[in-house]
Amino acid sequence: MPIVFVHGVATRRDAGYARAEAARAALMRRFLVPAAGQVSFFAPYWGGQAAAFAWQHASLPQGDEEVFGPGEETAAILLGEVWESEPPPDDQVVLQVARDSFADGVDLLFGTALEAVDPQEADGFARLAVRAAGLARPAWLDTARDDLEVVNRLAGDLRESTDEEEAFGPDRALLHVYEGLSRIRGATGRMAGRLAVKALRPSLNRSASMFLGDILVYLRQRERLGADGPIATTVAADLRRAREACTPDDPEVLVIAHSMGGNIVYDLLSALRPELSCDVLVTVGSQIGVFAELGLFDAVRAPASPATGRIPKPAGVGRWINVFDLNDILGFATERIFDGVRDFRYSTGKGAFAAHSTYFVRPSFYDRLATRLGEIS
User: Fold this and answer.
1) Are residues 246 and 368 in the same domain?
2) pLDDT tens, 134-184?
3) Which structural domain range is residue 262 located in?
4) Which of 191, 216, 248 is the last residue of a domain?
5) Whether 251 and 181 share a structural domain
6) How does pLDDT run across 34-93, given as a tens digit for each residue?
7) Whose C-alpha in 60, 72, 122, 195 is 20 to 30 A from the C-alpha of 344?
8) Ramachandran class of 366: left when φ > 0, alpha when ψ lies in -120 to 50, beta otherwise
9) Which residues face 345 on adjacent strands?
10) Does residue 179 share a domain with residue 98?
């Protein structure tokens, strides 16, 4: 199965890019591809043709600017992830999450562990994640004392669930779960209270500038160069390669597009490169609906009245599902605007500023995606 993953804004080839790409591909292979199936992955990287900052982000506030007026410093809006009540003890974060939802606890452990996974170990990590996602809520969870006991007991359950030794040997998948636990400890203390504002503001400011910059650069490229813009050309090339990789036994192309990646894919298939196609399109945390409402797509013509009908999906798109978290302020619905698309809600368990970047580190996301793809196959 040829699978094309189109990333969203603010994606750059930094130290974590290769690890994230390898882990994502491994999870897709384990959850989305039949055991005996073959898969060809395509991941067009368009971040290199997106926003570049001429003054190296000199436009970002530094926090040492002169105060505009009395009280300005105390008027900050709390941004980021904080616990609505008192945070749990540092050694019981996973325990409390898992007691509320065992699936969320597993996602928290494995999603955090992704940061420690090297590309060559991603497949073993994905096998372990698949097994963990398939476990039922254990009875011992009600008597566990802390996070370390949760991980130890979970490791024991995983060993009992398979005869394979590979996942617990050379690939060190379980060791990464323990390392992920160490990253979780202390996180609640760092995020609680007003000190989080100063710590998070620079990174949120930078993310916002990259988000806006990548969108504006793409729109400017399309305005000036159309289908020959660098970003459009990069993504189109891999969509074409994926179709060429199809065989009579494996004839379908699956495209998974995150955030702005969904807008780019829709733009290509609807107007810029309508000769391209995919059999299944999955848009995640994307803004296609709001771009359509704002008239930002050449292929979209607004109806005389919102009640008069929806827009046909591109002829080159077979089946289309759209996924968003209600907490994701950058994810929008589509099915009330487009014909032939279904909207699905998915909870990342994160708040407004973290939900958008959390979908693809959660094993449960791939598990539920596999179920939905099976329903439309």
Assistant:
1) yes
2) 899 999 999 999 999 999 999 888 878 765 544 334 346 778 888 788 777
3) 2-52+196-376
4) 191
5) no
6) 765 788 999 999 999 999 988 887 887 766 555 444 433 332 332 234 344 456 777 888
7) 122
8) alpha
9) 324
10) yes
Are 349 and 206 found together in one domain?
Answer: yes
- Tell me if residue 188 falls in helix, strand or coil: helix
Residues 203 and 342 in one domain: yes
Judgement on whether residues 233 and 371 belong to the same structural domain of the protein = yes
pTM of the full structure: 0.81
The closest alpha carbon to 245, from 257, 255, 234, 259, belongs to: 255
Structure tokens at 34: 């039949």
Residue 240 sits in the same domain as residue 118: no
Q: Are residues 238 and 343 in the same domain?
A: yes
113, 155 Cβ separation under 8 angstroms: no
Amino acid found at 177: V
Give the 3-state secondary structure of residue 3. Answer: strand
Q: Are 257 and 264 in contact (CB under 8 A)?
A: yes
> How far apart (Å, rounded) are the C-alpha atoms in residues 152 and 158?
10
**Where is 279: in which H helix or E strand?**
strand 278-284
- Total domains present in the chain: 2
The CA distance from 26 to 171, in Å, is: 13
Q: Distance between CA 157 and CA 167 in Å, rounded?
A: 13
